[in-house]
Design goal:
This protein is of the alpha+beta class. The protein is built from 23 helices and 22 strands. The strands form five sheets. Strands 14-18-19-17-16-15 form a six-stranded mixed beta sheet. Strands 6-8-9-11-10 form a five-stranded mixed beta sheet. A five-stranded mixed beta sheet has the order 20-12-13-22-21. It starts with 6 loop residues before the first helix and ends with a helix.
Amino acid sequence: MEMSQYLDIFIEESKEHLQSMNEQVLLLEKQPDELSIVQEIFRSAHTLKGMSASMGYEDLANLTHIMENVLDGIRNHKLTVTQDLLDALFVSIDHLEEMVLSIGNGGDGKKDVEDIVRLLHAIESGNSEEHPQNKQEQSKAGQAIFDEYEMTIMKQSLEQNFHVYQISVELRDDCLLKAVRAYMAFETLEQMGEVVKSVPSVDLIEQEKFEREFQVTLISKELPETIQNNLLKVSEIDRVSIESIMAEHIAQNEAEEADPEEEKTGTDMKGEPAQKTSSPSAGSKTIRVNIDRLDRLMNLFEELVIDRGRLEKISKDLKSNDLNETVERMSRISSDLQDIILNMRMVPVDQVFNRFPRMIRGLAKDLGKSVSLEISGAETELDRTVIDEIGDPLVHLLRNSIDHGIEKPEKRAEAGKSEIGTIHLRAYHSGNHVFIEIQDDGAGINRHKVLERAIERGIVNRELSEDFTDKQVFELLFASGFSTADVISDISGRGVGLDAVKNKIESLGGFVTVDSREGSGSLFSIQLPLTLSIISSMLVKAGEETYAIPLSSIIETALIKQSDIMTVHHQPMIDFRGKVVPLISLSELFEVPVPGWDEKDRSSVVIVKKGDKMAGLAVDSLIGQQEIVLKSLGNYLASVFAVSGATILGDGQVALILDCNALIK
């Protein structure tokens, strides 16, 4: 069967199951006695195993099968959740992720996993010896956990007047050939009925990877006494105990197995509808769409927006009522279509956030620190373009919080803090922006240390720095190559500093700020635009050139007189609502060959912002608001100062889009 057509779906769903396993194992670490979590991990591993086997990726299928055995041991109270077991599960998931990544990159998904397989086998057989359970309780039917297929078989058997038994078989202490005796026991049982399940699995029993005892679930019409007598006839079987499984036991297992998510309408790996277990209206109707198709759709719509602007201009020039009405209607419809397309591209930041709990756990363990990551607002949505780019800056900031922010447990205890440090990662909407904040309750930023290091590196002059506010000092952290690390490590960037974070975020049309209180912790705040493709802007003129200023950066527009302009350190300034802000002439900035704005009696000014900083942009005239399509200038012009891209106007002219973040220092 040709499976290549399903490859993209396989990779996508495999990543989802692996992420779920990562999250659930982290949860299991906090709640080791919660069997419902084990059930979730088992379900994901079981599904991944089936998908891998059907696609022909045997290494993936085999590793997930061995993981299933360990998880099954936990479900059936043969194993207890220990740190070694959790670490082994995490390593296994890492290997599985590497295999899936290999397949996604065109590889065969093969990997040497002999070490982790050996470790999982050792845990499966060794833990049952180190943590013996009450064997009588283990054999109780109510303790057994069955999958959906096994429960269906048992229910049908009970309805047809068969008996379902949970049988515990114990070999003699001096038994030398355990696998042989177990095989003979299975032969005896299969003559009396059908074996539904064994614990440990048949594979492990054949490899003698069990102690003296194993359990078997049998469907039979024989009486318990007959089964027990026949088993005891097998040499070196010391004890046999039998319990009947009744309908209520199966119902209990079904309740434990129930998954609320199965109530929803979904699709399996090959895109076939999953069986509905609720009314049609209760299911969510969704389809998977390749992101390349959405990109093509967006590109086509961007061209439509450009043509819409041109049509609106033509309509105004011709002054035709009929044409105006038609254009207005088309504009309304295309605006609605624009909203739909933009919403289709919006994805929750959870797609980025969900990788961090596992990363935090690993880093904290490496550094000998105790850290709790608390996430809120993971459902907040951002354009996919932004989502794809924001991951690395967030990783750097989180690593920075763990490495430089959170103290060692003993230091936190000395300071009267909880030994467990907390990092809050939250996202929320505000206007046309999304804010992402990373806040820790660590040591905070040492103002003196930052200032001294900046002076040492020539980033700032000592005399000028004497009057710096805390905020100005903290901003030095984003200077190129700045680092306060006494020892360079691989955790937070090998001393590269936070300048790379700042540059990346500003390239996305956002900015980052930091605030801190020494001894109490730090807060890094990132502001990002909702989307980067189609933006609302103010069109302005500088000479004969037209420029677009994003509305998200504009506070307001104003008219100023020449007498309102003052000069401070050779920089024109104006008073805006009681605050002195710099005044920048666009015609001078871009060397537009027209008379300067300072020769006019009055000038139009656009007040723009970057965080809590402001500047006034002096322009020759204001054209008005318009939605524009942001087009990249390409690699050749990527470094043009204060320009983030370009757009095509309705009259066919090209207008540069200003990057206000670059203008405001």
